[in-house]
Amino acid sequence: MADRREALRIIGAIGTTCAFPFSSGELYGQHQHPPEGKQADAGKPQYFQPAEFAVISRIADLIIPPTDTPGAVAAGVPAYIDMVVHTNNQHQAVFKEGLAYVAAQAGGDFLGLSETRQIALLTPLSNAVDRGELKGPGEKFFRAMKSMTADGYYTSKAGMSVELGYKGGTVLSEYPSCDVPEH
Amino acid sequence: MNKVSNEREPIASAPNSDIVMDNPIMAVKIYDVVVVGSGAGGGTLSAHLARAGVDVAVVEGGPKVNTRTDFNTHAMPFEFADRHIPTMKAGKPGYDSERTRGVGGKTMLWNAVAWRQSERDFKGKTFEGAGEDWPVGYKDMAPYYERIEREVGVCGNLDHLEDLPDGIFLPPVPMKCSDVLVQRGAAKLGLKVIHVRKSTLSRATRTRPACHFCGNCMAGCDVAAKYNSFDVHMSPALKTGKLEIFSNSIVREVVVSNENRVTGVRFLDRTTMKEGEVRGRSVVVACACVQSVALLMMSKSRLYPDGLGNSSGQLGKHFIPHMTGGVEAFMKPMIGKHLTADEGFLDHAYLPSFMHTRKRDYARSFGAQFGYQNRRSVGWARQLPGFGKDYKQSVKDRFPSYLVFSPYGEKIPDARNFVDLDYSQKDSFGLPLARRQVFWTENDMKIFHDMQNWSKEILLQAGAEILSVSDKPATNHELGGCRMGEDPKTSLLNAYCQSHDVKNLFVVDGSVFPSASEKNPTHTIMALAARTAEHIAGRLKKGEM
């Protein structure tokens, strides 16, 4: 076998396009192929039951709440998550176990808890995810929820244009100058 | 010309016509040169030949693409359910697989970085005993670099660097705020950051407008301020009446006669799957590194059972893509600051190779691009800690300051890196898929770790908050596999990109590189195409084809 500092890699048939070696370069939704004309934020959920969808929606809004700009729900994030999970068995398992975990922790009714208690329930999961610990179903679920919420929100019109202020495709006659203070 | 089929019009070749007709089935005419592929190599070469009075047919696997109307250049992610912006507008074909890109090839979607290679890049083996020498040196290539720069317009600064020769430049584009910060950080370590050099116009020309900084160069430049081989090279050359473009024609074989001459190419019509043929006195294969290797491997014959022009057995060997990796960071002085519309033109600065003159325990070197992702990439937001209002605010604050630092390192040729065909995997045209085998050698990994360390250090000196560091190398800029060289036993092509085995066969693209350098290769591919075109036109004039 080769030296351990060496490695063989088969890139495969489709090869490289633009090198962007970070997970940040890929969004969950990119791997979904919704039918033509189907909008992420239109119609009833395709995968989640109404009760599940309500919990997903609540957690999405706790992750990115409404402030002076829209939150996750107003930006259509729950429907985006539904679209992503709809066609992916692995995500479905994570959400199924995760929703069961959250329900058990909440004594059966997450939505019945006060906002403070809802946040208190999610905080240890978030802390574990930030430490890179993904052992339990709760942590795996929270990571998926947060990643999909961030992806869905910051690629939505509300998230990208209103919250972040990104206009995109601006035609400029002159390049804006930079005035970074000396340090 | 003759009508080429019952159902189709002949290819446009009349003066003053920009029309490219799709899908002839059998061209009766015998062309002086048949060029496979229409990107940086094929597009440049065919235009140069046509202007020299040579009859050229370009055979391209993809459809004709209109840069002005067909790309989703200005789309936003929320216009699509899956938030993924498709390359092409609805109903516009092209760029859907490796073998069916479109007229213009990858120049339609490139970032347009344009470097001249230095003598050290061409003669690496002589300089430090690593890599392979090219059969041409800087002095051979300089006139062709200059010709390309004058034709296409390259902007940049005169920096007087030994390892990055200056050229004929339009004025450089000002640096971004993040570039200025990186430049100051690098200066603390004694490193120079320069203006990037790109084949994108910083000043309007007679026929093309200057860049207007809309910020999505790699999604197709809809005003052709950024070079693409169709709008800049081929379209004007169509007016000579000497150039014809067969689009949607996927070449599956270069045909060789028993007299050891190539006589043309056989193709599959991309839309009807009908077979077709274009005949010529010579053939130039220029369909992008790996696909050129694949085409030559598929072109088996009695004379060349192991692939056309492969008597050396070297075809596909010594695949040397660039090695990259990188660091994601937030530039602290920009956190929470006003968002400026500064993504236009993508990256504006560059860290040229500096390790050649420093003590190190590996051969060759690296350079770094940074900030060439535009702000539509927001996937990093999921990596910030916490949730709720504070999380939302921290994403907003960091949005103007996000930077990706991407070093590019040179991979030294090694037999364990190669391209071959996987006959068990066929594409939708029934052609075997090309397979890339990449082996990271000890030298590669030393460069990788060193370039990661330098990247982190430069960013820290620049006042950055580092978000992530990629932990393994990735590849980009495919090179090698059909290399040039003096020795027919160890190379496939001579100094004019001409096959050692078959005298009227040429290859011009990234596959011909014997050594990769750390520099983006397209400018060198275009200069090689200009040089090869001149050589072919000269030989045709002397009646040598």
Distance from first to last alpha carbon of chain A: 51 Å
Cα gyration radius of chain A (Å): 20 Å
Main β-sheet of chain A, in a few words?
A: none
User: Would you count the extended β strands of chain A for me?
Assistant: 1
Helix/strand order of chain A, N-terminal first? EHHHHHH
Biggest pleated-sheet summary of chain B: 8 strands, antiparallel
Structural class of chain B: alpha/beta
Strand content of chain A: under 5%
Distance separating the two termini of chain B = 22 Å
Topology, number of strands of chain B:
21
**Structural class from helices and strands of chain A?**
mainly alpha
Shape verdict of chain B: globular
Averaged pLDDT of chain A: 83
From the alpha carbons, calculate the radius of gyration of chain B and give it in angstroms: 23 Å
Give the averaged pLDDT of chain B, no decimals.
93
Put simply, the count of helices of chain A is 6
Which residues of chain B sit in consecutive blocks of at least 5 with pLDDT less than 50? 1-19
Give the % helix of chain A.
40-55%
Largest interface: pair, residues per side: A-B, 74 and 87 residues
Oligomer: heterodimer
| Helix content bin of chain B | 10-25%
Question: Brief overview, please?
Answer:
The complex is a heterodimer of chains A (about 180) and B (about 550). By secondary structure, chain A is mostly helical.
General description of the model:
Chain A is an all-alpha fold. Chain A is 45% helix and 2% strand. Chain A contains six helices and one strand, in the order E-H-H-H-H-H-H. In chain A, helix 1 packs across helix 2, helix 1 crosses helix 5 and helix 4 crosses helix 5. The longest helix of chain A has 18 residues. In chain A, 38% of the residues are buried. Chain B is an alpha/beta fold and 545 residues long. Helix content of chain B is 22%, strand content 19%. Chain B contains ten helices and 21 strands. In chain B, the strands form five sheets. In chain B, strands 6, 12, 13, 14, 15, 16, 19 and 20 form an eight-stranded antiparallel beta sheet that branches. In chain B, strands 7-3-2-11-21 form a five-stranded parallel beta sheet, with helices on both faces. In chain B, helix 1 runs parallel beside helix 6, helix 4 crosses helix 10 and helix 5 packs across helix 9. Chain B is globular. The N terminus of chain B is likely disordered. Classes of the chains: A mainly alpha (183), B alpha/beta (545). Strand 1 of chain A pairs antiparallel with strand 18 of chain B.
